[in-house]
Amino acid sequence: MNSNTTRPTLEQAIRSFTGGKQVIDGRVKFQISPLVENGNAVPVTVEVDSPMTAENHVRRIALFNEKNPQADVAIFHLGPRAGRAKVSTRIRLATSQAVVALAETSDGGFWSSKANVVVTLAACIEDVSQA
Amino acid sequence: MTRALVNVPKTAKRGEVIEIRAMIQHVMETGYREGPNGVMIPRHIIKRFVCKYGGEEIFSAELFPAIAANPFLSFSAVASESGTITFEWTDDKGETQTASADITVT
User: Fold this and answer.
1) DSSP class of residue B42?
2) In a domain, A130, yes or no
3) NCBIfam families, from UniProt (chain A) (predicted)?
4) Do A72 and B77 touch (CB under 8 A)?
5) CB distance A74–B34 less than 8 Å?
6) ipTM entry
7) pLDDT tens digits, residue range A43-53?
8) Chain A contacts of B78, Cβ < 8 Å?
9) CA-to-CA distance for B106 and B12, rounded, in angstroms?
10) What is the arithmetic mean of pLDDT over A66-77?
11) What CATH code is carried by the domain that includes residue A80?
């Protein structure tokens, strides 16, 4: 495994995104299956409750994981022209862990939602010695 | 690079929120895997995705190795005027791939 490289913890990764600002639990709807068979492609959808107007919209949506070799998953940049603060993609999960979705609104607030996912077949790392 | 698939409705009513989907063929090699010879396979990922509507950026993404191979993204946009929606993917070797779709707004 990759124990020679230390990754930031989930909390550190979140702090580097928010700049240490307070994160409130809510407004973010995080759709991810609680049990996935294949960690190589896990569908996720993040939807943030926002009117998406010029005055009040979601600026960024970020995804972070707890136990992959790297904490970052993706950062999406949105604006009022998006119309709806909803993003879907497919991610990799190396093992069973927590995944956090964060949203930064145009007023500078941070909102989040956390999900715990059990992975039965991991991604990223193929360790032949354990086979 | 390789094949890119984008999905944009051909027509929309003005002000309607449309769904846009984009996918590109790419290994998204994490850089955390060992090859058969025990040597790490070097990282090769798409780092950035940008979508522009009528020349103005409406959505972009920074991607990391935790994004699955053949990155798929779905997001939305307000159908504001008839025009072209362009897509651009850039990988960590600096290679870019583009795609575009036209939309008619009534």
Assistant:
1) P
2) no
3) SoxY_para_1
4) no
5) no
6) 0.94
7) 999 999 999 99
8) 80-83
9) 6
10) 95
11) 2.60.40.2470
Q: Does the pLDDT value for residue A1 go beyond 90?
A: no
Q: B58–A81: do the CB atoms touch at under 8 Å?
A: yes
pLDDT exceeds cutoff 90 at A89: yes
Asked which of A3-17, A25-39, B25-39, B79-93 is least confident by mean pLDDT, the reply is: A3-17
Q: Which CATH architecture has domain B4-105?
A: Sandwich (2.60)
- Whether A104 is covered by a domain: the verdict is yes
Please give, rounded to a whole number of angstroms, the shortest distance from the CA of A21 to a CA of chain B.
21
Q: How many CB atoms lie within 10 A of CB A2?
A: 17
Residue A6, amino acid: T
Region B67-83 average pLDDT: 96
- For residue A37, give its domain range: 10-121
CB A94 within 8 A of CB A123: yes
pTM above 0.95, yes or no: no
What distance in Å separates the CA atoms of residue B72 and residue B90, rounded to the nearest whole number?
Answer: 14
Instruction: Work out how many domains chain A is built from and give that number.
Output: 1
- φ/ψ of A81, rounded to 5, equals -75, -5
Task: For residue B106, give the 3-state DSSP assignment.
Answer: coil
Res B23 pLDDT > 90: yes
Residue of B nearest to A94 (CA): B66
Q: How many CA atoms lie within 13 A of A84 on its CB side?
A: 18
Q: Is A117 exposed, middle or buried (0-12, 13-18, 19+ CB in 10 A)?
A: buried
